[in-house]
Amino acid sequence: MTNLQLKRVVVTGLGAITPIGNNLDEYWQGLITAKNGIGKITCFDTSDYACKIAGEVKGFDPLAYMEKKEAKRMARFSQFAVAASKMALEDAQLTINDDNANDVGIVIGTGVGGLSVMEEQNEVLLTKGPGRVTPFLVPTMISNMAAGLTAIHTGAKGPNSCSVTACAAGSNSIGDAFRLVQSGYAKAMICGGTEAAITRLAMAGFASAKALSTRNDSPESASRPFDADRDGFVMGEGCGILILEERESAIARGARIYAEMVGYGMTCDAYHMTAPVPEGLGATRAIELALKDGGLAPDQVSYINAHGTSTPANDTTETKAIKRALGDHAYKIAISSTKSMTGHLLGGSGGIEAVATVMAIASDIVPPTINLQNPDPDCDLDYVPHESRKLTVDVALSNSFGFGGHNVTLAFKKHN
User: Which residues are named in the active-site annotation (predicted)?
Assistant: First the structure.
């Protein structure tokens, strides 16, 4: 398919469930007012845990979006996905019916899926025997079920898939959905990432890997991307969903357009299970490919929503990648890590961060990086410390990097 045949793709709806707000407005207002969503873990006893803090979603009621019986048969990550997708469809004023169902698809990624269900049912197996394990174990646990259940609850019958690329899963899903609309396989896509990994096993595993912050006495200052005193990431949970539409179709139905999606770059380090390749070469190529895909020059970029995990390895490596990809212009743009407020949602992070990136374009406000008290000398770019900033954002990128060496950059710009 030649470039002349590619469709333009726009963002017409957004949905978010996060540690700082359970809808789009709450989430965005939380970001631009530097709200902190990190606190002591309340969903299980952390007495024996090295890390006792996380960014929990508070006050989420699945029954506002589904029947009680349905909610009981759905893992938390899928509940988030169904709810945020319904929000995004409502925001887009897009109704799925018999006339358009085949033209609307879904790609929703996740890192670990229904891990909580696996943990619970393993306990049942060990204490009560195999005959007591629920028949819903597999269909609630498997990672693709967020996309599958969202289709069931929305009626979308078009392309349906799930990216499972660790912390890049949400961004890969948005990129893959972009390609489907761009190439004409769908007129609209529900896409993003979801995660609910604040569980006993996940927290123990990441803590054993020395990946988590242990700043337990000061949860609000634990997630500190690009700061010299950072000591690991803070787990978060939630979901971010975008509605991507073929531009002509969106205009024809009078849709409000937040931004245009123009580029998708993805690469692999092929280097290490968890560590990024030195000098950020894989991440550099992802940024460069997203710019090339969107027909953008480095000096057109106004803002980058960084992966910015608050781990020693990521933040310096990502900084090097941005410098390599953008050259001297890297010092002239605004960069922020919203993980400083939400924590790291693993496979869900690309979803909520793409929402933040699109909102930065739509509102010309850049969210801050909080807790940046003692900047790392190796992280010497403009990370918008402490407070949000009014800035005309014409082009913005969103970075996501995952275990396994997955690198993804998404490119958006103002629609005209």
Answer: 167
Same domain as 324, residue 248 = no
Residue 315: helix, strand or coil by DSSP? helix
**Contact between residue 84 and residue 237 where contact means Cβ atoms under 8 Å apart:** no
Burial of 241 per CB tally in 10 Å (0-12, 13-18, 19+): buried
Which residue, among 342, 349, 386, 394, has the nearest Cα to 367 in the 3D structure?
Answer: 386
Can 167 be counted among the known catalytic residues?
yes
Residues 347, 244 contacting (CB under 8 angstroms): no
Residue 297 lies in a domain: yes
Claim to verify: residue 323 and residue 242 sit in the same structural domain = no
Alpha carbon of 284 to those of 48, 141, 181, 329, 353: distances in Å? 40, 34, 26, 14, 19
120 pLDDT above the threshold of 60: yes
Judged by average pLDDT, the poorest of 16-25, 103-112, 169-178, 268-277 is: 268-277
Please write the tens of the pLDDT for every residue from 197-248: 999 999 999 999 999 999 999 999 999 999 999 999 999 999 999 999 999 9
Residue 320 amino acid letter: K
Nearby residues of 65 by Cβ (< 8 Å), 6 or more positions away: 79, 82, 83, 86, 153
Sign of CA dihedral 191, 78, 356, 273: negative
Q: Looking at residue 149, what is its pLDDT?
A: 98
Residue carrying structure tokens 């696996």? 118
- Is residue 364 pLDDT above 90, yes or no? yes
Q: Give me the residues paired with residue 10 across strands.
A: 245, 260
Find all residues with CB under 8 Å of 79, minimum gap 6, and list them.
60, 62, 65, 66, 71
Give me the catalytic one of 43, 51, 162, 167: 167
What's the CA gap between 336 and 308, in Å, rounded?
8
> Residue 236 gets which letter from DSSP?
B
Q: Is the pLDDT of residue 3 over 80?
A: no
Shared-domain flag, residues 223 and 286: no
- Rounded CA-CA distance 192/241 in Å is 4
Give the per-residue pLDDT at 42.
Answer: 97
The answer to whether 205 and 351 have CB atoms below 8 angstroms apart is no
